[in-house]
């Protein structure tokens, strides 16, 4: 697979994400029970159903390329460290949003190559909206059967910014950032949709000053970067993947322009 081009997989992976979304909606519409995983995070039948479908379809699409899903994440680092290329999947990102029935949950599928996301698909089952991109190409969004649209981050050059905040995980550090920022507007959102709002130019910045996992961000990071934006840690380095710990550092999602968002950060260290 030395001549492998991730763009060749983009349409099939969009189809896989949409098929997983249909599985999720089947559960969403008929009702479900909620279990707890070992880390006390919620788990539903929809998580498992989407996980099984995505893993099966990706293995058919790219035989021999490993799949790391949130629902099968117990792979020793010694084994993962040998992976040059692998699929990184969150079958149902925003389980709390799913349980609360607000529609703000997504299916996230990313292809990681050399510690960077080179393909990303974020699908919103309730609205039928898909965000997708591959490295070296534009980013797009498509709603249902409508024509796909190229998306681009917007350029901020001062004034009153639009800031994305987490629906379920805003904390005191984010509140301090917003206070330091001065006058601003906020849009609250769940799941990987927060990054996508920067990617499509709806918002200027998304500060995530708290824990996330690699599968939460990889697909949307690819979309943001293809749309002209950045997803960086607080030292301004792009988020990297397949680390010994799958936990992300705090990070910032920003659009175009040279505005220094980092100067508004509270003292976190």
Structure report:
The chain has 269 residues and is α+β, with helices and mostly antiparallel strands. 29% of the residues lie in helices and 28% in strands. The strands form five sheets. The chain has a seven-stranded mixed beta sheet with strand order 3-4-5-6-7-8-9, with helices on both faces. A three-stranded antiparallel beta sheet has the order 12-16-14, covered by helices on one side. A hairpin with a 5-residue loop joins strand 1 and strand 2. Helix 1 runs antiparallel to helix 2 and helix 6 runs parallel beside helix 7. The chain is globular. It starts with 9 loop residues before the first helix and ends in a 15-residue tail after the last strand. The relative contact order is 0.14.
Task: Provide a count of the helices.
Answer: 7
What is the succession of H and E elements?
Answer: HEEHEHEHEEEEEEHEHEEHEEE
**Cross-sheet strand order for the largest sheet:** 3-4-5-6-7-8-9
Biggest sheet descriptor: 7 strands, mixed
What's the total count of β strands?
16
Cα distance spanning the termini: 43 Å
Radius of gyration: 18 Å
Structural class: alpha+beta
Strand content: 25-35%
Mean pLDDT score = 92
Shape verdict? globular
Flag low-confidence runs: none
Please give the share of residues in helix: 25-40%
